[in-house]
Amino acid sequence: MALDSDARKIFDLILLGEDVCLAVNQSNSFKVECGELRKRVSRFLEMLKNLLCFITSASTSLYLRSLNCMVAKLKD
Question: Could you name the domain of life of the organism this protein comes from (predicted)?
Answer without folding.
Answer: Eukaryota
